[in-house]
Design goal:
Blueprint (H helix, E strand, L loop, with lengths): L2 H7 L1 H7 L34 E15 L16 E14 L7 E4 L19 H7 L4 E5 L21 H7 L3 E2 L2 E2 L9 H8 L11 H15 L2 E6 L2 H11 L3 E7 L6 E3 L7 E3 L2 E3 L2 E3 L1 H4 L6 E6 L11 H22 L3 E6 L18 H14 L4
Helix pairs in contact: 4-9, 6-7
């Protein structure tokens, strides 16, 4: 029996003896017609206590390499006959009381791990807990060769270059050392320190096929679900979605690359002071898989509309433009995709880390509304 089926099979017995989220909070988590009531949420430590029905972790995907020969227990450091398990993803999960039908899968971005979904740099609840409060089962992964999934079958040199200031600008917190006026990144030295210490190197080369295969294997394990990607995971997320029909919606937070288009419809490359962004061609048959599910793409604030020699700003100008062409291509082929540029709807100051910003509950509200509108809650 698959893991999600096991979890759902426990509902009738577990619910009879377990206490709900908190007095009255479980009843208010879902309104009529599947709408999600956020009033009992808050998304902050010290709010309503949680009862988690089940939690745990497991590995998924990966490869095994073997050195020829026979293992000799009297010479254990000789690799002959020995194996190495690596290139898998590590997944942690939490199941609330009365979970909704479709779980969320949270996939981190570049130099990040699943930890970033749990707690913000200033100690508030992240999406992992906010959506758990809203009765979504949440699977949070570390992609292969990163974080707790660091066991790799292909070695690399650990990146030790000093680059904090580059990423500070790249992630649109501000222009180092200043924050953008009205920006939503948590203020203060402690929050900045916590963020920098959340960044991680890769233990092996980034291999798109390895990443896509592991996340696809996760959806094979849990059955149907909703994929939530951030940044660098965005492009790999399209690859997984095109190959695995168990993905029933995609929420992409500021995808940075890997935008796919049908063969013959790839737009012209877009130059910027951070380099040139190019779309990727895929067969139309594969691309059409993206037209079968609802997709929403979100971008935050402080993205220029004109070229600039500040690379950390200019790279987002072309990424936002390419994302719009990507969404247009999906809809041109009969799909259901939308791009939400938050400042255009009055939500201002967001950085590249929408789920960690001071208004992350407001961003979660937008996602909850999207899922409810599409009948996925």
């Amino acid at each position: 029996m698959k893991r999600r089926n096991v979890i759902l099979g426990l509902t009738s017995t577990a619910a009879a003896s377990a206490v709900g989220f908190a007095s009255g909070s479980d009843a208010s988590a879902a309104g009529p017609s599947g709408q999600i009531d956020k009033s009992a949420d808050g998304g902050r430590a010290g709010f309503a206590p949680l009862t988690i029905r089940e939690q745990g972790g497991f590995a998924v995907g990966g490869t095994v390499t073997t050195t020829p020969g026979t293992f000799d227990p009297r010479n254990p450091t000789n690799p002959a006959g020995q194996t190495l398990h690596g290139d898998h993803a590590r997944v942690s999960y939490q199941v609330p009381m009365r979970p909704r039908k479709l779980p969320l899968v949270l996939w981190h971005g570049y130099k990040q791990s699943g930890v970033g979904w749990g707690t913000t740099p200033d100690g508030r609840e992240g999406f992992q807990t906010i959506f758990l409060r809203r009765r979504f089962t949440v699977y949070t992964l570390d992609q292969p060769r990163r974080g707790s999934a660091g066991q790799t079958t292909v070695g690399t040199t650990t990146d030790t270059a000093t680059s904090d200031q580059w990423f500070y600008n790249q992630f649109r917190f501000g222009l180092w050392p200043d924050l953008y006026p009205g920006g939503q990144f948590p203020k203060g030295e402690e929050a900045r320190e916590q963020f920098f210490r959340s960044m991680l190197p890769d233990t092996g080369p980034i291999d798109g096929e390895v990443l896509a295969n592991s996340v696809s294997a996760l959806f094979d394990e849990i059955d149907q679900g909703i994929l939530v990607t951030h940044s660098h995971a965005g492009g790999f997320g399209w690859d997984v979605t095109m190959k695995n029909p168990n993905i029933k919606a995609v929420v992409a937070l500021e995808p940075g690359s890997g935008f796919v288009f049908p063969e013959g419809e790839v737009p012209e490359p877009m130059p910027s002071s951070a380099g040139t962004l190019a779309g990727e061609a895929v067969p139309l048959k594969e691309f059409r898989q993206l037209t079968k599910i609802p997709i929403v793409v979100y971008y935050g604030d402080n993205i220029p509309t004109e070229p600039t020699d500040i690379a950390g700003r200019d790279n987002w100008r072309v990424r936002l433009a390419m994302a719009q062409l990507f969404v247009d291509a999906i809809n041109r082929h009969g799909g259901d995709a939308s791009l939400v540029h938050l400042p255009e709807i009055g939500i201002k100051g967001n950085t590249h880390f929408l789920f960690s910003d001071l208004n992350n509950v407001q961003i979660a509200d937008r996602i909850s509304d999207f899922l409810a509108t599409k009948g996925l809650a």
